[in-house]
Each structure stands twice: as C-alpha cells, then as structure tokens.
Amino acid sequence: MPPRDDDSQGTPQAAPGRPRAKRSIKRRMQHFLVYVRRKVPPGLRLVLGLLLICGGVLGFLPVLGFWMIPLGFAVAMLDVMPLYRRGLERGRALRRRDNPDRAETQADSGDDDPT
Question: Is the pTM of this model over 0.70?
C-alpha cells in the first residue's frame, strides 16, 4: 500500500518540491472560474473581467490587489474565446467559399495559415 500524503488529522500535505500555497491559489482560481461560468450570465462575465482588471491596476490600494489582473483576464476569456473561435470558423468558411481550390490544397497539406 503506497504511503498517504496526509498527516494524522487527515489534512493533505503539499507535494514534494511544490509549495502548498501555489496549489491552493490554483485550486481557488479554478473554483472561482467554475462558479463564474455557472452563475454569471455570459454578457456580464466580460464586464466582471474588465472590472477585475481595472481593480488590479489599482492594486496599490489596501483592499484591491494585483492578483485581480490575471483573474480578470481569465474571467473575460470565458466570453472572448468562444467569440474568437466563432470568428475563426467564419473566416475559414468565407475563405473556402471565395477560394475553393486554395482551401482544398490547404486541407491536404494540413496548413491553416493563408499566407
């Protein structure tokens, strides 16, 4: 039976070579993003992300912190990435429609770069 990473009270210990604080921050950020994705409507996610970024810029103030900047980018990306992907798909469809010969040769070579 492999040794457990728990102490006698059942609290998990940090993995060797990895500080416990980093795991905790990463876990908290993941939980926050899951919560935002489930509870906040899509239009407000971008606004919330921008507000977090603006608050992070004022990180020298007592209540706000510079930790808000990456969190704001992560929250904003929840809305921006689907729009970005949709735009890429639309651009590819338009290129295929305008240049069917070039789209077929790119599909054969596996190269998505139009240049």
Answer: no
